[in-house]
Amino acid sequence: MGEPTAVVITSDPGFGVTTLLTERVPAHAPSAEIISGQWHPTAAVQICIGPPDVPGTPPPAHVLRLVVGCQLVNELPEWVTEHGHMGVELFVVGQLRFTELTEYCSARLGGPIDLGSAHLLGQVSGYVPAMLAWLLGEVRQQGLLVQVGGLWHLTGDVQPVFDAYMRSYLTSVPEARRLAAHRFALEDPAPAADLDEEEELTAQGLIGMGVMRKRDDGRLQWLVPGVAESVRRLAPGTMVKRIMADSLASGRPTPQAVRWALQQGMQVDDGHFLQLMDRLLRERSYRDALNLARLSLQRDHSAEVRYQDNLLAHHALRGLNDPDEALAHLRDAETAAGQLPSPEHEKRSTHVAALRAEVLGYQKGEVDAAAALLQQAQHQAPDDQAAAECAARRVMLLTYTGHISQAMLTLEAEQETVGAAGNALRIRCKIAEAIQMVACGRSHEAFTQLVKIRHQAELAQQSDRTVGEELAAAFSAVSLAVDGPDQFPALLAQLGETENTPSTPETVGFHVGLASWHWLAGDLDSAHRYAELDAAAAEYGDPAGYRYLLVSLLAATSALRGQRTQAQQRLHQLPGIMLRASGAALGAALAHQAVARVTLGVKGTEAWVMETAQEFSDSGLYGWASDVLYSAARFGSKRAARALVEIEPKLQGHVHALRVQHARAVVSQDILAFHAVAEELRAVGLTLFAAEAAATGAALEAKDPASKRRCSALVHELKENSSLDNHPLLSRLPDGARPKLTRREEQVQGLIAQGLSNEEIAAKLSLSRRTVENHIASLYRKTGRTRRNPARLR
């Protein structure tokens, strides 16, 4: 177990730390003992639920792990943090990330959950684990969660569940505390200065429940939107009216005050209304945003405000994937614009035309018509800035729908025009240009461009909420194209953060990235599961249009998992699915299809791959050509491998270099070359491709048995940490290919994998260095390995 260590888990109440310490830690360490104030006489692992449970003196020698929960480290006895008694490992538990949300819900329900339902439940529960666990149990018990086709779906409004919960709580406390809770909710975030005794007790109680926290600025903020809304709903009418009126009169009204005023049919300051709508759209609370926009439209307003409200309603409807209603609101916006004087009338009409083109192109799949409409609007634009908007949006539309060649030609021809666009649109064009570079195989240039504009983009997203989303998606694509998925988990964690973020990740798009990462990492089961959930969500909630890419990925995962019928069904689905935003990753989508076709033995696949790659190369899209060629080369196509080697001078980035190295091994059929590239692919996290390269090498005839053993041993090593058992290249290898190691050799192999030197291994196992070297020599003879894993040396 190593050196004595104190594992300190810090968290606010409500984040599941008590459950973690009382249930999950003991489940993983059955010999652990929960203690309070005194050390257990024999247990090596001892658990303290909170600081008061930690003994005042350092532990006796037999205690190797102390696991303790707290809110602040300075609440613990000094000996815990003093150097010399125990090492300290600090873990912070907070709101669930998007990467954790679906798994958490599925684990609680005992089966997979629809992504849209998971994210709605996460949002209303504030991503607080304890509150989400309670909510899942309640909605399931009340029949609001039903299982259809093995997938849990939310079928009704969950707010009444919170209403009942908080009504019960509020009636159980004294009136003074009840009124204090109402005030905190109505004023959220409420000032915490000068609280009376009852208010202080109320705040402490709500913080203890995990539904509220005290911010650094001293204000009390509700963590769980569903609870806060219920407390507001249940507040006395006179209290609501007084607090909301005061908030509106203050000049800085809270979002709930603005919403209340709209519901009452009152006049609301336009700036405050726009702030609230921007917040809702960033949070992807599209239904709330649509309801408020339509409430605002019922007011007697000027043509300018009606124009603005219709645009907001259109944005919400695009998020709800209702293009026809979005177009209807754009028609109303154009009518309102017609009542404005020149030149505002013409400017607004041009903007409406540009937005109409986006709905046609992105959501209805009518790209040619949309591009033509943007070109026409540009020619009719009343000034340079309006023309620039149309040109910039045409570049982005063509890029994100897969018309990369047209997009590049348009950008080249309209560079001067686009330069007159607003700052946010210019940055968005540069992001789109980075996506074009990836398609062309210029990954390093793309990454450099994104790094250069990142700071500007972070500032611009304050005024244009789409900038941050497009930048995050571009960084994801470019990072995978440049150096592989090794750094992607950190990026994914950042993108999936739910605490103090300016906007909520787009559900389907976020999980496309998650599924793609699992695919590259060789976890085909997880990739398939996420893609399947995502494809189901995309059936009715895919405003961008990732379904084509998802079904292509599912065809590949099904084929490599041995599910041939499912793979064939997915391939047959594809002709009926519009490309839409999947076009930005067309190379990856077609590469997945190539994998499925090769695995299924579809006649003419090699010719299809070569023709597709040639079309891409003729258009200068060498990155996409590399995607498709590599998919066939991995499975032994020498034609595809030679073609990939030929375009090497056009490709940038370590990933493309490794693909070419793999292709050269296919052409040469050199076992050592396969083993070398497999090790390098593994070093950058491309486990799937590493296993395929090693398996191909292991299947070759060799004069030198050691080379074959090295490849076989690497295949088995990679299979241990991935779900590749049914992969056709790997399943052909005999089970007996894995060498038998002695118990001591397995220990040495494990310590080598941890990065220990020979001297460190000798000390760990109480052996001489010479003995360790003998074991390593024997280990290398059996496995065919001649050096330590390069991934460890990194």
Q: What is the 3D form?
A: flat
Please tally the β strands and state the result: 9
Task: Bin the strand percentage.
Answer: under 5%
Low-pLDDT stretches are 789-794
Count, helices = 41
Q: SS-based structural class?
A: mainly alpha
Largest sheet: 5 strands, parallel
Going across the major beta sheet, what is the strand order?
Answer: 2-3-4-1-5
| N-to-C span | 25 Å
The helix content is 55-70%
Mean pLDDT: 88
Compute the CA-based radius of gyration. 30 Å
Q: Gist?
A:
The chain contains 41 helices and 9 strands. It is mainly alpha-helical. The chain has a 5-stranded parallel beta sheet with strand order 2-3-4-1-5, covered by helices on one side. The chain has a two-stranded antiparallel ribbon with strand order 6-7. It has a two-stranded antiparallel sheet with strand order 8-9.
Key words describing this protein structure:
41 helices, mainly alpha, two-stranded antiparallel ribbon, 64% helix, 794 residues, disordered C terminus, flat, five-stranded parallel sheet
Please tell me about this protein's structure:
There is one protein chain. β8 (212-214) and β9 (220-222) form a beta hairpin. The two termini are 25 Å apart. The chain is mostly helical and 794 residues long. The strands form three sheets. A five-stranded parallel sheet has the order 2-3-4-1-5, with helices on one face. A two-stranded antiparallel ribbon has the order 6-7. A two-stranded antiparallel ribbon has the order 8-9. The protein is built from 41 helices and nine strands. The protein is flat and about 85 Å long.
